[in-house]
Amino acid sequence: MRRPIIFILCLTLLTGLTGCRPEGTLERQLEERSPADPSVAKAELPASLPTPTPVLADTQSLILEDQSNIVAQPPADLAPLEFVFPTFDAQTVSFWRPPLYPLPWEPTPSDHFYFTRPIGANDVNWPLARYRYGYLLYSEPHTGIDIPAPKGAPIMAAGSGTVIHAGYGLYFVSDIYKDPYGIAVAIKHDFGYKGKVLYTVYGHLDRVDVYRGQRVNAGDILGVVGETGKVSGPHLHLEVRIGDNTFFSSRNPELWIAPPVGWGVLIGRVMESNGRKIPQLKVRLVSLESNKVYEAITYAQGAINVDEYYDENLVLGDIPAGKYWLFLDFTGQTIKTEIEILAGQGNFFTYRSTRGFDFTRPKEKLPAFNPPTAMEQADGSSSQTAP
Predict the structure, then answer these.
(1) Taking the domain 263-358, which CATH number applies?
(2) pLDDT band at 365 (very low <50, low <70, confident <90, very high)
(3) Where are any strands of DSSP class E within the chain?
(4) What is the pLDDT of residue 76?
(5) Boundaries of every domain in the chain
(6) pTM beyond cutoff 0.90
């Protein structure tokens, strides 16, 4: 009698375990979700199953991720400009993303998508949503974006140029091995913007595979993702600098990295009635088609530089084209409007508390005209011309 009983128990346990498995493997689900168009890049496999995307019953009752799981306890010896990678719960990740637009991508005179992704499509290669450029973690705003790729993932040059730094010591601290960037690479690119030189910086590497003075092209391997410097987890810290290779010359990388084909970038300037920008204001996008929620906050006050054209205090990249509700949590109330994200370009809006929303793009700023001095007029040496 023992053998039949044991057989029945084993069969029951096996049936129960089989019933708990998801329908089909992750690879099969990805194949079913992937578009039929063979030109679209192969699906990106997350290291683990993603957290379910928040769902909306309607646009008035938003179900958003809980922000309370952010661990924000700085180390006791943290200096003002040292970088710390915050600890978060697992992010929601997309099963696939289309390929990027070809470079350089300039769909409008004000857009300058000159760089490709420094992490390949087989790994997470988009910014950590809760720690974008301009976000305030401790005492200083974030001057780049963090891409939470796994340790050892290859890091590629975002554009062609010359390596001007490779190894420890990017931040010029007295002890180079205490540099907050850790092992880092800096590239001076052989192209610029409006007469100014462009630089990219890649921080927290585990290993460097290039040397100072080496010429690289977009896509060349610079090293691998690590967790050197002031971090609490493996990731790539990426900065875009314009004019000078200094911490204080950074710009928002999401305005310079090409978006996926069919996706766009939301750019905003959120102000009080007097025109002063409002810092750290929550902004949400809710898709009218899928009810998916995208969330960001406006820049914090401090050492943050803005785009010369947009003069923004909000950037939310990698948004699929389509129509959305745009929500602002302002002065204890939620203000909303409908907005359309156009593919492959920056989609700009302004909000002023007394005037509401405006979707007119900024006017191009003319160069400042400084009249020549009397000496310059006398010897004809002035190079100034009237606009």
Answers:
(1) 2.60.40.10
(2) low
(3) 145-147, 154-156, 161-167, 183-193, 196-208, 215-216, 221-225, 236-242, 250-251, 263-271, 282-287, 293-297, 314-320, 322-330, 333-341, 346-352, 356-358
(4) 41
(5) 263-358
(6) no
